[in-house]
Structures are given as C-alpha cells and as structure tokens.
C-alpha cells in the first residue's frame, strides 16, 4: 500500500504554470531536439506541446526554448533556465513524495489504521 501525490505550480490567480506535462515535454525536447518528436513520444499532439510552451512563455519571464528554423539545421533546444526549472521541479516533487511516504507510513501503516485484506 502506498500514497500517491500530484504536484504543480500555480500563480496567485490559480493559473497552472508548471507541472508534470510541461516537465515531460521539456525533458523530451531536450532529449530529442524537436518539439514534433517530443510530442510524439509524450503521446500528445503537436498543438498541445506548443500550448505547453506558450503557457510557459506567458508566465515565466525567461526564455526557455530556442527554436532554430531550417530544413536540415532546424531544431529546438532548452535554455539553461529551462533545464534548471525542470531539475528544481523534479527535486521538489521528490522531496514532497519522500515526506508523503514517511508521513503516510506514520499515520496509516505504523498504527495499523488501514489493513488491506483483498488481493488482486
């Protein structure tokens, strides 16, 4: 048995700024050098991937992706700021998950508050 968490970052008006989907698309852009290929690997359409990037550009006051146009020399790269953003978000998620796991164990498992008797 385990707890599950989901984390994202919002602005003061509850607008979703950064979360799992944006992290995934940025990581895949960094890996593939292509928004198109990143969207395919993420299982999302190209328009949705661009939507993620546009939202990031709208709310974050730093350039995060550099798009180079060209038939053979085109591609997309992440800026150092984008890489830092992804890494910091992943660290935050890991820290929160570690705390959540520890606290879940303390509150529910150590005290035998939940006993699962059914098995699949």
Q: Strand portion, in percent?
A: 5-15%
SSE order, one letter for each helix or strand: EEHHHEEH
Q: Please tell me what the overall shape is.
A: elongated
Unreliable runs, pLDDT <50, ≥5 residues?
none
| Strand segment count | 4
Query: What's the arrangement of strands in the largest beta sheet?
Result: 1-2
Number of helices: 4
List the helices and strands and how they pair.
Elements: E1 9-10, E2 16-18, H1 20-32, H2 35-42, H3 46-59, E3 65-68, E4 75-78, H4 80-109
Antiparallel strand pairs: 1-2, 3-4
Characterization of this structure:
By secondary structure, the chain is mainly alpha-helical. Helix content is 54%, strand content 11%. The chain is built from 4 helices and 4 strands. The chain has helices at 20-32, 35-42, 46-59, 80-109; strands at residues 9-10, 16-18, 65-68, 75-78. Strands 1-2 form a two-stranded antiparallel sheet. A two-stranded antiparallel sheet has the order 3-4. α2 (35-42) crosses α3 (46-59). The longest helix has 30 residues, at 80-109. It is elongated and about 60 Å long. The two termini are 13 Å apart. The mean pLDDT is 90.
